[in-house]
User: What shape does this take?
Amino acid sequence: MPKKAKRIIVDTKLCKGCHICISVCPYGVLRKDDEVDNRGFFLPIVYDLEACKVCRLCEMECPDFAICVVE
Assistant: This one.
């Protein structure tokens, strides 16, 4: 049975909006938010959770450990 993500958590206190997670995701799960947060960053948001195959590339490549994929 293929893996499926229940949710993807982006810790808004740790994320600095570098968008590495968006660029490494082969499935287009994450997108840049249209609005800035209170620190002035465009943070990643979960755009298509159903497309997530739990490869965890977003988790592994995040330099700030700000993303957690929950199976």
